[in-house]
Amino acid sequence: MKQKLLIADDESDIRDLLKELFEHDFSLLFAKNGQEVMEQIKSNPALIILDMHLPGLSGIEICQHLAEISVEERPSVIVLSGDTSDALVKQAYSLGVSDYIGKPFNLVTFHERVVRFADDINSIQKLQQKDKEIQSLAQTAMKQASSYGRALELVAKLNDCDTPLDIMRAVANNLLNQDLKIAIQLRSDSQTFNYDVDTQECSPIELQIFDVLKDHGRIYHFGRRTIFNDQHVSILVKNMPYEGTFSFDAVLDVAAKLILAVNSRFVSLLEHQSLISTRDTLQSAMQMLSQGINSMEAERRELIEQIELKIGLSFHELDMTEAQEQFFMQLIENQLRNREKSTNLAPLQQLITSCVDGMMLSESSKALRKEHVEVSDSDVELF
Prior knowledge:
Blueprint: E1 4-8, H1 12-22, E2 27-31, H2 34-41, E3 47-50, H3 59-67, E4 76-81, H4 86-94, E5 99-102, H5 107-158, H6 164-176, E6 182-187, E7 192-196, H7 204-213, E8 219-222, E9 225-229, E10 233-237, H8 246-314, H9 322-338, H10 346-378
């Protein structure tokens, strides 16, 4: 596509000459006075060949107006004038004209000069466009790095979440900091947990979306929304960036990996809660077992005492000497006392106690981990 060249001169012969000179190289615009120049500038010409002494607005006034336009949008100006006084040339250059050529002029030299100048303008524009693209890529890379950094922060925070609600809030707030609004669902075999970043509770429509789309693959797009699924987790992003943008790709990449971490943390939390529940059950069973053993031992002791009493009372019916009675009484008492206490259930009791003690350690591991992190953080020197 040809660049636009505005030829501004009040002499028709000059306009016709320049038209014949540049019509194959540029898309030409014409103006014969200052007012027409101002109108044609709205067409965004890349280059203006400007006479200094136009009817209406002068060339200097036009240059003053162009100087107020931003550099990116300002057309380049080549002055072609019969007035080459030092004051006028100096003033024109001070207002940003690119070249000042006096009349009369050499046609071949002027043509080559303008065409080469236009090529330079085109090269500069291409470099500026490339620079913008590089800046855009750099900004996108920084946004992606920031997004990945926030995702890593979230993974660290998930380890401190004690409940499903803590997990859902951590995920929602983290993504909200990236201008993403979500609803999230966590599912176990017995319970389902839902959370919406805007209303705290999911709407019936969002619940229906979770129910219908939770088995539609890891990533599913519909309109401006995207749902990310794993076995126990679904994250519904309600304002996805437009498809085909770097932001869209970054969200896909981060969320697809993030949902794995959320699912893993939720499963770990369920397992931890299951262990705590099992520990509590074993504690109750151990207490019941201890009470049963104590009750059995008390009954056994009472039974032995009754047997001893009855045997002692029956000796007077037998024709025995006092020494014989004492011998048999001592023999029976020793045998009964040796069996007074049963140890058959003692190993079982010790085993249950050991299991419960081990589960207590697992519950306190999180507090120990936090204490370790606090100590480690205090030793880290930031720079």
